[in-house]
Amino acid sequence: MRRLLSVVVSVYNEEAVLEQFYKAAAQVLKDAAWDYELLFVNDGSRDRSLEILTSLADRDPHVKVVSFSRNFGHEAAMIAGIDYSRGDGIICMDADLQHPPQCIPLILEKFQQDYDVINMVRTKNESAGWFKNLASSAFYKLINVLSDVKFENNASDFFAVSRKVAEVLKDNYREKVRFLRGYVQNVGFAKTTISYEAGVRAAGESKYSIRKLFQFSVNTIVCFSNLPLKLGIYAGIMAAFLGVVVMVYTLFTRGGAPSGYATIVILNCFMFAILFLIVGIMGEYMSILFAELKDRPIYIVAKTQNMAEDSEKLEQIK
Ligand code: UDP
Ligand code: MG
Fold first, then answer.
1. How sure is the predictor about 156, in pLDDT bands with cuts at 50, 70 and 90?
2. Which sequence spans correspond to the domains of the chain?
3. Number of other residues whose CB lies within 10 A of the CB of residue 140
4. DSSP code of residue 211
5. Cα–Cα distance between 153 and 125 in angstroms, integer?
6. Which of 59, 65, 135, 139 meets the CB 3.0–4.6 Å disulfide criterion with 305?
7. Mean pLDDT of 279-303
8. So what's the architecture of 4-208+297-312 in CATH?
9. What pLDDT score was predicted for residue 314?
10. What atom of ligand 1 comes closest to residue 12's alpha carbon?
11. Least confidently predicted of 194-198, 217-221, 276-280
């Protein structure tokens, strides 16, 4: 029996590229060694994306659609795709053709060699601009210092996992604030990488603003490292040490303490700055704890099309 490949594609306002993506992907997939399903997750698009996906799914039974009730974000879309996929191997990729479908046969080869996790590493990212590229490499440096978990530099949301790993992600990685590529790189199993060149977005525009990326980076650090929580201890020790030094200096300076308005004000500002920073950091951790505690769903599905359950439902109606 031929094995089944699930290609999970997250879609948010991608009307400009969807047809083009479908053509390029179907072209590659129809000649592939495996059977396939092309699973689009519509992340609450407000343009014609869903309409286009519906018509693709009407034309082609390989196309499956899971549509969210509103925008839940790229991370939610990817895990929903993994939840709904049925393949022996699963590839997650973007709809904008920055993740070239031409890589799919290479990924299949790795699956044939029994790899469970295939990380796609971008060698260059033309569309991102120097600032995003610089920020991205700084982020990876920082997270690798802060976290015990090691991250592949320049890893992207383009990766493939075997059914085994998909089941682990489905059952055990249900955090509300999430960073899927972090989990994928750290579940263990037989891992390999393939490098690829991220081209420019085929059409439409990037959905990630600098602000969103910053928030995303903060969340990831909080989710993967406890070190910032301990900053308070280090700052406290430093402040105590400084206090002792100043005290000794004051006691033993002939003529008593120097009058020091500026010193006092500067020290006060400096100490308060550190204090508030640490309170803020604790706030970040608390907000993530709070999200976990509320236990709201990671995503809500409004509608599916061409899924196995749909045909079962149809059978029941008949
Ligand atoms: N995306 C999504 N939900 C969102 C934002 C983005 O599903 O809230 C999808 C988007 O449609 C695309 C992928 O995630 O397929 C990557 O987004 P984008 O290309 O805008 O990011 P960039 O490549 O610029 O980092
Ligand atoms: Mg993109």
1. confident
2. 4-208+297-312, 227-294
3. 16
4. H
5. 13
6. 65
7. 93
8. Alpha-Beta Complex (3.90)
9. 47
10. 11
11. 194-198
Residue with tokens 């006060």: 268
Check whether 124 has a pLDDT greater than 80. no
Pair of tokens at residue 209: 């603003």
| Tokens found for residue 250 | 């004051």
Ligand 2 geometric centre to CA of 205 (Å): 8
Nearest-CA residue for ligand 1 atom 2 is 74
Average pLDDT, the chain: 88
CB-side exposure of 253: number of CA atoms within 13 Å?
A: 11
Measured in whole angstroms, how far is the alpha carbon of residue 172 from the centre of its chain? 16
Residues with CB under 6 A from ligand 1: 10-12, 14, 43, 71, 73-74, 77, 94-96, 98, 201, 206-208
pLDDT, tens only, 175-217? 899 888 889 888 889 998 888 888 787 778 888 888 888 888 8
**Residues, the chain:** 318
- For residue 128, give the ligand 1 atom closest to its CA: 24
Ligand 1 centroid distance, CA of 273 (Å):
36
β-strand 117-125 against 155-162: which pairing, if any?
antiparallel
Q: Are strands 301-305 and 63-68 parallel, antiparallel or unpaired?
A: antiparallel
